[in-house]
Amino acid sequence: MENNNPSTAQESKGLSFVEQLVLEDLQAGKNGGRLNTRFPPEPNGYLHIGHAKAICMDFGIAEKFGGTCNLRFDDTNPVKEDVEYVDSIREDIHWLGFDWGDREYYASDYFPQLFDLAVRLIKEGKAYVDDQTSEEIAAQKGTPTQPGTESPYRNRSVEENLDLFIRMNQGEFEEGARVLRAKIDMANPNMHFRDPIMYRIIKTPHHRTGTTWKVYPMYDFAHGQSDYFEGVTHSICTLEFVVHRPLYEYFVKELADESYCPRQIEFNRLNLTYTVMSKRKLLQLVNEGLVAGWDDPRMPTISGLRRRGFTPRSIRNFIDTIGYTKYEALNSISLLEHAVRDDLNKVATRGMAVINPVKVVITNYPEGQTETVEMDNNPESPEAGTHEMPFSREIYIERDDFMENPPKKFFRLAPDGEVRLKGAYIIKCTGVKKDAEGNIEEIYCTYDPESRSGLPGSQRKVKGTLHWVSATHAIDATARLYDRLFSVENPGAETERDFRELLNPDSLKVVEGIKVEPYLAEIAAPGLPLQFQRIGYFTLDPDSTPGNLIFNRTIALKDSWEKAQK
Ligand code: ATP
Ligand code: MG
């Protein structure tokens, strides 16, 4: 089911099949050789990584072939839409690195033209008002192999249809009382042609047009026409719209001519393991408090991934890797995680933080003395420079890095054993102090003063190297350790278990009292990628205050899930 092989994901190394089709149109001089795409989010939720795939296609292809891409808010259902979503969508597209210039449009801008077109179709006998309930209409739809039944209202006079449609829009009738339907063919093998609904009555005010309209167009009646009104040449969308394409073309032909006609092309949507992608489900998680909000770092939303510390480049690289095909697939989230590690490895500033600290006292180091050691900011890129880190008599190391009775291959600290403190000295464990319950409170060590880098003993080899921070200088902070939100591979699959029962109970662990070296605390900012050496990639959470720094773990250094599955 998974498609992890990038080479099968893309038809040829060079262009995706969508790019090939667009290129052919351009070369054939269609639409005067213009290329204009659009990204059409419905402002009823935050964008998720699936949308990022569509954004990379819509904006990317325009960039590649010298065209333009419109941002069109598909705001045809005032019941679910909100300006909060409009703002977040804008921010997320910009963050991904794309721009729509002055081409920001709203389907609601076309309500007047769409209404005029509907009136025209009524006058031409191509649309009628149906007084039946939605249940009655659904019951007459038929099946793919059985024709539907014609509505008793199908043959109303043009005058009556016009009168009713106008009164529908004046608010005279209740929601659900009447709809406007296209009069096409109740026996058509394509169910979407069986007199599809064009308009329904909605009385909730619209976030842009207020109470001007009481009838709102359905997707199929709005989308292609909006494309046409905007001059869109290629309307690229996901595979579930393949079956809508004939209807798209049917309505668009009412407007278009030889010189210009938009064309719909479909690619496979992004589905990710351990993730739900439907906005409806994501909204449920938010509304039911199962996550902290749309931008909870465990969410697959762009804002969640941003807060978590994912970089735009890692998301775009991931989307390039999986490519665009004509077949549905479920992509492994480890491919995304790989892209994130790959990018963060190049850009993250290295530093030291101890997540589960235990104190080490270096008994032969002078009390009150401090020195500094120099640390690479990023060994992957020398131009990232270095920073200084204080060293003193008392330090913290990870509790896990010490064992009193270690197994054979334990290359960390143990009684009478030696390890190197990264960037500093070799220390040797001489004893421990325990509390009444036998828990280790402090570890005692001596250090080898000749073992610091630059000194004669620096070449001396020991098996283990530990990260550490100076106890007197370290800053206390909080870590939020995030993991996958769901514990099963395909939580979106239709099973009898509700997706909310499949949440990973360990998707967030909050650890207080972590110890962070001063430099990291000083430079930390939301979105700035950091690597806590030997621990993982982190970034500052916007909830931080100067007195309480909170670090989000973007991702661990290695894929612990892969190991667990072996
Ligand atoms: P829902 O999640 O409720 O199905 P939607 O994802 O269709 O809603 P829209 O705002 O209508 O939400 O989507 C805008 C555009 O993003 C559409 O062109 C749609 O095809 C595309 N898109 C949505 N989800 C994905 C996905 N998982 N992968 C690729 N493209 C997607
Ligand atoms: Mg949609």
UniProtKB/TrEMBL annotation:
Residues engaged in binding ATP = 42-44, 48-54, 238, 269-270, 277-279
Main localization, broad class: cytoplasm
Concerning Gene3D superfamilies, the annotation shows: HUPs, Ribosomal Protein L25, Chain P
Q: Name one GO cellular component term.
A: cytosol
What is this enzyme's catalytic activity, as reactions? tRNA(Gln) + L-glutamine + ATP = L-glutaminyl-tRNA(Gln) + AMP + diphosphate
Q: How does it assemble?
A: Monomer.
- What Pfam families does the entry give? tRNA-synt_1c, tRNA-synt_1c_C, tRNA-synt_1c_C2
- Domain tRNA synthetases class I (E and Q) anti-codon binding, chain residue ranges per copy: 465-541
Q: What is this protein called?
A: Glutamine--tRNA ligase
Q: Name one GO molecular function term.
A: ATP binding
> Where does the Glutamyl/glutaminyl-tRNA synthetase class Ib catalytic domain start and stop, copy by copy?
35-345
Q: Any keyword NAD?
A: no
GO biological process terms held by the UniProt record: glutaminyl-tRNA aminoacylation; glutamyl-tRNA aminoacylation
Q: Source species, please? A: Duncaniella muris
Key words of the record: Aminoacyl-tRNA synthetase, ATP-binding, Cytoplasm, Ligase, Nucleotide-binding, Protein biosynthesis
Q: Where is this region: Disordered?
A: 134-154
Q: Which residues make up the binding site for L-glutamine?
A: D74, Y219
Please list the residue ranges that the record marks as compositionally biased, kind Polar residues: 142-154
Listed EC numbers? 6.1.1.18
Q: Which family does it belong to?
A: Belongs to the class-I aminoacyl-tRNA synthetase family.
Residue span of motif 'KMSKS' region: 276-280
Q: Where in the cell is it found?
A: Cytoplasm
Intervals of motif 'HIGH' region: 41-51
**Keyword Secreted set for record:** no
Note the InterPro entries from the entry.
Gln-tRNA-synth, Gln/Glu-tRNA_Ligase, Gln_tRNA_ligase_bac, Glu/Gln-tRNA-synth, Glu/Gln-tRNA-synth_Ib_cat-dom, Glu/Gln-tRNA-synth_Ib_codon-bd, Rbsml_bL25/Gln-tRNA_synth_N, Ribosomal_bL25/Gln-tRNA_synth
